[in-house]
Amino acid sequence: MASLETAAEHERILREIESTDTNCIGPTLRSVYDGQEHGLFMEKLDARIRNHDREIEKMCNHHFQGFVDSITELLKVRGEAQKLKSQVTETNGHLQENGKELTTSMEELRQCRVQQRNIATTIDKLTHCLPVLEMYSRLQEQMRAKRYYPALRTLEQLEQTCLPKAGQYRFCSIMAENIPKLRIQIRDTAMSQLRDFLESIRKHSDKIGQTAMKQAQLQRSLDSSVSPQPRVLLGRRGRKAAPAAIRAGMGVNPLSEQDTGILDVEDEEEEDEVPGAQDLVDFSPVYRCLHIYTVLGLRDVFENYYRKQRRKQARLVLQPHSNMHETLEGYRRYFNQIVGFFVVEDHVLHTTQGLVNRAYVEELWELALSKIVAALRTHSSYCDDPDLVLDLKNLIVLFADTLQGYGFPVSQLFDMLLEMREQYGEILLKRWNVTFRQVIDQDNYSPIPVSTEEEYRQYTSQCPFQDPELEKLPFPKKLPFSEFVPKVYCQLKEFIYACLKYSEDLHLSSTEVDDMIRKSTNLLLTRTLSHCLQYAIKKKNVGLAELVQVIINTTHLEQSCHFLEEFISNITNVPPDTVNATKLYGTSTFKDARHAAEAEIYTSLNAKIDQFLQLADYDWMAAVPGGENLAASDYLIDLIAFLKSTFSVFTNLPGKVAQTACMSSCKHISTSLMQLLLDPEVRQISMGALHQLDTDVKECESFARAGPVAGFQGDTLLLAFSDLRQLLDLFTQWDWSTYLADYGKPTCKYLRVNPHTALALLEKMKETSRKNNVFAQFRKTDRDRQKLIDTIIKQLRNLIAQHHT
Prior knowledge:
Blueprint: H1 2-19, H2 26-34, H3 38-144, H4 148-166, H5 170-225, H6 243-249, H7 266-269, H8 284-295, H9 299-317, H10 328-351, H11 358-380, H12 386-405, H13 411-442, E1 448-450, H14 453-462, H15 468-472, E2 477-479, H16 484-503, H17 510-538, H18 544-559, H19 561-572, H20 586-613, H21 634-649, H22 655-678, H23 687-705, H24 722-733, H25 736-742, H26 755-772, H27 780-804
Antiparallel strand pairs: 1-2
Helix pairs in contact: 1-3, 3-4, 4-5, 4-8, 5-8, 5-10, 5-12, 8-9, 10-11, 10-12, 11-13, 12-13, 13-16, 13-17, 16-17, 16-18, 16-19, 17-20, 18-20, 20-22, 21-23, 23-24, 26-27
């Protein structure tokens, strides 16, 4: 069994050797050498080899003839091959000999092709590099020319397009490294130019605003000279468009390369046409910086910086000078700077996309408006010159109209102007107070003499006056009033004109203007003129003639009040009978002044009478006169003469005034004489003194009966002396029985005699009688008279007690 397995294993190994690649036969042979049947295997192997040799030999014998034929053919072919080889070698020699020139030409051609390829490559590279170099050269040129926005565009194109195409070259690397530095340089330079621009417009905002306000004023004058069309304020879309605005509107690049910020327009200002406010400013630094920062992706940074800087400048512009109120030029410079600031902001708003927006500009304007109003309220309060206030008002109106033309709301400014109107009115009142006082001080208080028709017409044209009787009189003649009347009337009209001037251009209706003028005129009449008239009446050394002339003057001014009403209605075009129209208080003002003058006349007359009465020197202990007639006292004769001359001047006064003055004088004389009788210092009065006083009273009654002033009916003026007359009659006639019997009856003869007065006078007579009869008390007549006086005194006391009960 073992030999069979060994034989099978050797057979397998042999088959494996026959069928396996010689490179992999090693493991098979190793298994033979590792086994114990090596010799047996070698035998098997030899037998297998011999077997294969026999098969090969059989095969060779089978194909031998063909092999011989093949060898024979091969030998023949070798000979032919030798011939062919010699021919080829010969041909090759000829070919090599003949191909040397071609080889040389081919080498030259190859070299040319290599050069051509190198040239093409070089041209291709240069095609990509030359634009880079040209663009970089253009960039340098733009940088030198300070054309930074085009330079930034060139830089962007160089970085994004040209350098990537050029490839990796050293100069490209240097350029790429310089690009961020150039961007920073452009950004910083643009910002520097913007700062210069901001500083420039800050310095020149005065000039910009002045030009804008000139435009507005020119437009106003043009509108006022044209038909009554609604006024269109000149503003950003005025008659002369700004070049920058035109460029922006047409889509042209606004980036002018002029960096001055303020253009020179001195020559233009000399011409009739005022340049546009924007013509003065070159906004290219703003546009350039905005575009540059936009390209750099820093637009927000630029917007914040610009707005912050402009806010700072706004605060500086809105800060008024401490002495601004001293001159109109100070206000004008202040307004010019503000207008210049907002003209620039408005132009930036409409020519840039979002650098500033409407909300930002409105916020700035609200801030400015509050500060402007506060500053004007403060500084205008220092002003006491109405002309300066009026000029300031016109300047504020022009300022408001200018900014309104640019779309800014200005209602607060007009509200403030209405507030200033009150201040203006007060300043006018102060000025007219001085004027009225000057007129009063310069007046001669005499009727105006006119010697020609021309003079007459001149005065009647200055103030309304019509007197048909006076016109019939021949020249020379006198107007009843003094220079005071036409001067005051003209000053009233001047005041009304001054009020009207302030009301112009305030966008008020005719009714509002009319009401404003009437209220101011009422203040002038009731406060200023009234005080001045009181000053004229109350001032020292004013005489009765002056007071009489004041009454005449105020009477004529009172009559002219309705002409003032018509004058105001004519200049305001508001009918005087309009509902709720304010009425002038001139009539009451002049009436009050006239009443004050009348009272002053009465007071002055009484004071003059008192001066005469102080000269009275009665002998209260005088004896009863004999048969001769007593003469009136000297002081009383002088007093009557004075009154006659005084009342003769009252012919031009209203009748009631003269009558009242005369009655008041007579009453004052009567009262004063009564007070002399009852003076506590006069302790004794004799019957002789009463007869002298009775004579003086008769002189007064004679004066009253003569009618020093026309208009009294009957003996009305005598009633002023009735109290004194009845008292003196009672004592001089010694009619006590009648007095005591009829006391209290309406028909009593001594109805005006007061028992208290009679008692006081009787006691003074009792004292006199007692002293005179000290040594004659034993005479029966004197004793009886003394008893009678005592009895009468007792009865009077009982009468007083009964009346009191």
